[in-house]
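dude i think i finally got it to work??
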Amino acid sequence: MPSYLDDNNFDENGNLKKNTSGNKTPSKKDIALDKFDMAGTAAPKKKKTDKINGRPKNRFVRFATAVFPQADDSGSEKFRKAFLLMAVAVLIGALLFLGWQIFSMAKGGELNNQLAEIAGSPIDQNQNYVQPDRLANPDYNIASGAGTEEPEYIDLTPVVNEPLNINFDKLKAINPDTRAWIKITGTMVNNVVVQSTNNDYYLSHDFNGNPSISGTVFSSYLNTWDGNDDNKILFGHNMQNGEFFAYVAHYLPDDKSSEPLAFYKVHPTVMLATPDGGSATYKVFAGMVCNTQEEYGEVFDYITKTHFVDADDFNNYIIEVMDRSWFFTDVDLKYGDELLTLSTCTFPLGRQIETRWVVLARRVRPGESEYVDTSKAYRNYQAKLFDYYYKQIHGSWSGSVWDRSKLLSY
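look at this
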């Protein structure tokens, strides 16, 4: 006990006696400190913990402990946390990629509008693109007939083309790879056509050479563009916002409609302008689904046929195309006709099967009318497909049904 708490230091009334020994009388502060010493030296403060299992009370620390693997975690707990972190990383990556896609598509559309203004072929800004159900929700089955639903009113009045007068000098000043301008009247297909030394570069680069998920419309590197091409082959992405070759996919028959070929009947022609050849019109005559992966069956070669060695080569190719066409038209063909091929992605069998929707047209001959009697066009329900497709629909090809009298050079 401290000395100043001895009974001799207090009078009969319990008051502290006056110090007569010269020692300093303890103050209230000193007494208070001594009392504190009596209770023992104060221990350092403990880390605040949660009431549950002693978890850290700090929310951030608690979160980190729950999410990141800890040294004292069991093996299964470490695996669970590692899997969770990987899933979160994948989700963040997917969201970033989606954001980049949306941004890239928007930039692609903006660039297309700018180029259309420069070229002198402005885009109709009043179009609100809606992807057809048959493209967004593909059906494995080929319909056996049309008009099974309640008939709807469909305006089948064909569009009227105006000759293209493109300012190629301005376009070439920006990009010397410029080769042509393509337009399908009444749609968003109103694009410059470029060409590289391969068929890969413009799949992922825009007109200015910047990386882009939208790419731009480009020609096969095999085309010469010197007036000697028998078949100009163009490629473009099928973008969900309607840009580039999205509308080319609309030529795919809509078997849920009372008029499966409505889009074709309204847009039976395609326009192409070149720096040296002026504005030309092409009559659409076929559309086919082509496989690109050998493990799923035949890969029909349409991407290398830019020239035909003779009439037999041309005739045989046209017969092969028409056997695969999902529709027939009143357009006739003959050796010497200049063809135009438009290729884009489509997924009738799901995203994992990379197929192409390919539309073919032939140039209007000198002195020939651009008019097409679309009333004579009809759906071909026996189009030649490939092995994997037949497995999905449990079918097979029954043979050629195209009227070969339409091939005048045969």
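The radius of gyration is 39 Å.
im so relieved honestly
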